[in-house]
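Assemble and predict.
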Amino acid sequence: MTYRLVEVQKSVLSKNAGLARDLRQRFAESGTFVLNLLSSPGAGKTTLLEETLRRLASTHRAAALVGDQATDNDSLRLARAKVAVRQITTGAECRLDALMVGKALDGWALADYDLLCIENVGNLICPAEYDLGEDLRVTLMSVTEGEDKPLKYPLAFNTAQTIIITKIDLSSATGFDRAAARANIERVHPGVQVIELSARSGQGLNEWLELVEQRVQAKRVAAPASV
Amino acid sequence: MHEISIALSLLEGLSEEAERRRIGRVSAVRVRIGVMSAVVKDSLLFAWDLAAAGTIAEGSELKIEEVPLALWCSKCDCERAPTFPTSFQCSVCGTFATEIRHGRELDIVAMEVPDDIPAG
């Protein structure tokens, strides 16, 4: 069979990229600082967010979106922090995309929030590919996972601006090699900011909260004055 | 495993282009996929057959060109291959280089449109 070749040259992710650009524009206008948290299942995204929201809820107008394939367990946990929480149940999808985030924000006046935390689906592969219009992408790895996580999932660590090593209070119990982990992070993302933290013991939490507060403040100042 | 949604996105992009050009049938689709994109080739091929059923691309062949990782090495001051397919280390000087120049592609390159009248 003969055929003619028709050139296309189009990225499969161009639709998501366009939607993410629109979201970023909306977040800029409303002055909402947006976090996108990535990690494998069980690394401690929800626990870190619970603690973050609990500590910041009195001084910040915070909201959270939680991606999960099947349950709303995490959003129920976060709701205890007394902030606005919405669940995105992704079903078969292993990550959030900009379309899901846009839909989940329906009916929320973004100008009412200065901090939006997005907890991605627990997975270090697919979420790395999808821009959600966030200001700060944070990838978490826990001390129970092994020091070579960054080498196994390089894109998740390469595209994040901050890396958090969680459950640091367990590091001696698990024989976690801090230096090796940090060297591996450095290999896939030289110079990236790394925070060692335990949401349970509180170690490193202030460093993290200060970072979030500074960024929220900067975003608010940069936003066009509300009418 | 998100290849089914990648396949659907691919099909959506393809359908838009085909409609714009008034193309009613596609016999093959050429795509370029980087080694660092989170796509498993065999899974995508499997998903493609399912996604394309009942569309202009039904029964079409998905031709995947895999793109290796290419890094910008600041020390060599040029584009280099990594030490192994998904490492961020320059294979020539050993510097860790993380500016990805190639390898994240997820692109529709072209479509093959069957000629209505057989040649000859």
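The CA atoms of residues 97 and 130 of chain A lie 6 Å apart.
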